[in-house]
Design brief:
With 170 residues, this protein is of the alpha+beta class. Helices cover 43% and strands 17% of the residues.
């Protein structure tokens, strides 16, 4: 379902003659994976690399899903929202090193708990654990849904037959 939400964002941006990022090449994704492993000692999930092969990060309505860093792609799409540079920034706080950060909004970090092996939302800035997800795709779908304007959300709630929960923290 997340691809449909990306397409909705593309349609919204087109009204304002703006564009979302294009996809990332296999070579850049491969170089990115090597760099992540070299810098952090972990591999990014395959679901995330599939996302990058579809769109190299998203910046929409306060939501940022990190893409491949500009110094790898030699583009200026993710100047301040590249995965590696963003994770380096978040890792300045020792407690955050247990997470792999995929993106953020004004009040939420979207990440993966590497010890508990679960995707989740963290309250920003307190770090309180929020909703947990079974996959990156589920986390991504929820983040994209939350960023959509109300009219667009209605399209997807009608398709799903029930409303998705907006943001909730325990």
């Amino acid at each position: 379902m997340w691809k449909e939400k990306i397409e909705e964002m593309v349609n919204i941006y087109a009204k304002y003659k703006k564009k979302l990022n294009s996809s990332c090449s296999e070579n850049h994704i491969s170089e990115f994976q090597e760099e992540v492993y070299e810098d952090f000692g972990y591999k990014v999930p395959e679901e995330y690399t599939l996302f990058l092969s579809y769109i190299n990060g998203v910046r929409f309505n306060g939501l940022v899903i990190y893409g491949v860093d500009d110094y790898i792609t030699e583009c200026n799409n993710n100047e301040d929202t590249g995965f590696i540079e963003s994770n380096e920034l978040w890792y300045e706080n020792a407690w955050q090193k247990e997470y792999m950060f995929f993106g953020h909004s004004s009040i939420t970090w979207y990440c993966y708990d590497m010890q508990k092996k679960t995707y989740l939302e963290l309250d920003k800035p307190s770090g309180a654990r929020g909703i947990e997800y079974s996959s990156f795709e589920e986390l991504l779908d929820k983040a994209l849904f939350n960023a959509l304007p109300s009219d667009s959300k209605k399209k997807f709630t009608n398709i799903m037959g029930s409303k998705m929960q907006i943001n909730h923290f325990n």
